[in-house]
């Protein structure tokens, strides 16, 4: 290796250099080749401009095999071969030209040594000197003075780079130790995270299984409810009297509500009657002057014969228009009876008619609005059981009122309804109109 005189600074001083071994710089336009440079320049060129792995690759290619020497021996051998043009120097020349083609092209525009020197100083300030050193050293305008400056500056840069490498090596070792600590901490954190993720995954799997089980149970319950609904509908369809039972239930609810109202009204009337009895203890009820009359002498109320007869008894009205049912009920309840109704087979089931007839004390048959089957059923039932029956042809409230008045007149005349033959065709049985037969 060549030895260079130390230079105190990187400044370019154009002074007469000491002579160097090698060919003098060219003054033409052709760039110098590696073997054209002085031998003193080969060491920095090979050491700075070519990485060690690239240098070993080129030496192996030139020798036809992998060199067994260390990096220093490879470097010394390559520098020695650069003095002459040979296979290795040509490979090194081609690699340098290819690697630093951009810098070589940039330096072509410089026409004076001063311009090349200024470009070199700019590269030194930027810290990128490998390509600039090769481009400036082989430039056609690089004279002996500039060549000396380039070698000195690069020599000092190598010293500074070595010191920086030592500092960086200390920092690198500290960072390497710190990196080991952090790597171990990271490994522990990753292990904890892995365990946490595994636990969370197990929880998610467990919750997913529970969710699937709950969904299956819900689906089974929905299926059972659907089957039960179908069975219920089939059961309802299999019961012929289900609709009638529902209608009767509704009527029963209405009658229960009506009974509550009537009981409240009855209690109020009893209180009023008791108050009137206490207010007039010496008064007595006046004799009945006419059948069905509700008037009283001297303002004292009395009960008519039909009221005495129908009091707390059930009056069943079979048939009639639905719009007059409220009027029928009001008329019967005004004379003290309990009202019951059957539409004669229009909506209510015929099977319920017998039960209604058996529970009634008096039957009023609306012959104008009743089915033939219901009419004959009422007539036959009353004939067999002795049930009292009044046939009303016109289905109006006034006709029913006249029939009840006739019952009152018949009771006032002294007839014993309890012992009289109940046949509706008997001459002594009151009729509001002629029966359909």
TrEMBL record:
Coiled-coil segments on the chain, per record: 197-272
Region (Disordered): 417-437
Protein name, as recorded: DUF2325 domain-containing protein
Pfam families to which the protein is assigned, alphabetical: DUF2325 (PF10087)
Compositional bias segments (type: Polar residues): 420-437
Sequence similarity: Belongs to the UPF0751 family.
Keywords: Coiled coil
InterPro entries: UCP020408 (IPR016772)
Organism (species): Curvibacter cyanobacteriorum
Superkingdom, natural source: Bacteria
């Amino acid at each position: 290796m060549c030895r260079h005189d130390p230079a105190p600074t990187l400044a370019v001083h154009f002074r007469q250099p000491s002579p160097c071994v090698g060919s003098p710089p060219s003054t033409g336009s052709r760039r110098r080749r590696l073997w054209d440079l002085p031998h003193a320049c080969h060491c920095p060129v090979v050491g700075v401009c070519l990485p060690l792995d690239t240098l070993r690759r080129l030496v192996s290619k030139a020798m036809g095999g992998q060199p067994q020497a260390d990096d220093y021996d490879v470097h010394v051998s390559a520098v020695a071969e650069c003095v002459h043009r040979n296979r290795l120097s040509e490979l090194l020349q081609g690699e340098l030209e290819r690697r630093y083609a951009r810098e070589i092209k940039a330096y072509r525009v410089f026409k004076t040594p001063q311009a090349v020197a200024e470009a070199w100083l700019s590269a030194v300030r930027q810290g990128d000197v490998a390509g600039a050193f090769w481009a400036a050293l082989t430039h056609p305008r690089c004279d002996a003075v500039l060549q000396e400056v380039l070698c000195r500056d690069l020599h000092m840069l190598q010293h500074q780079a070595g010191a920086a490498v030592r500092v960086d090596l200390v920092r690198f070792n500290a960072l390497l130790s710190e990196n080991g600590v952090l790597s171990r901490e990271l490994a522990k954190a990753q292990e904890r995270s892995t365990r946490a993720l595994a636990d969370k995954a197990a929880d998610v799997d467990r919750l997913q299984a529970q969710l699937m089980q709950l969904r299956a149970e819900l689906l089974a319950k929905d299926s059972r409810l659907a089957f039960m609904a179908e069975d219920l509908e089939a059961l309802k369809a299999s019961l012929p009297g289900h609709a009638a039972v529902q209608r009767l239930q509704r009527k029963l609810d209405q009658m229960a509500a009506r009974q509550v109202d009537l009981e409240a009204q009855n209690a109020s009337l009893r209180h009023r009657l008791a108050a009137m009895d206490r207010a007039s203890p010496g008064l007595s009820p006046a004799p009945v002057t006419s059948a069905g009359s509700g008037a009283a002498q001297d303002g004292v109320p009395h009960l008519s014969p039909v009221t005495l007869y129908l009091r707390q008894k059930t009056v069943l009205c079979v048939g009639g228009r639905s719009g007059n049912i409220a009027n029928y009920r009001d008329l019967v309840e005004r004379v003290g009876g309990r009202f019951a109704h059957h539409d004669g087979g229009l909506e209510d089931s015929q099977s319920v008619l017998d039960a209604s007839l058996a529970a009634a004390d008096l039957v009023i048959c609306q012959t104008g609005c009743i089915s033939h089957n219901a009419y004959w059923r009422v007539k036959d039932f009353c004939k067999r059981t002795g049930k009292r029956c009044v046939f009303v042809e016109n289905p109006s409230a006034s006709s029913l009122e006249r029939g009840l008045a006739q019952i009152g007149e018949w009771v006032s005349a002294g007839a014993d309804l309890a012992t009289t033959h109940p046949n509706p065709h008997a001459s002594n049985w009151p009729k509001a109109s002629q029966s359909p037969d």
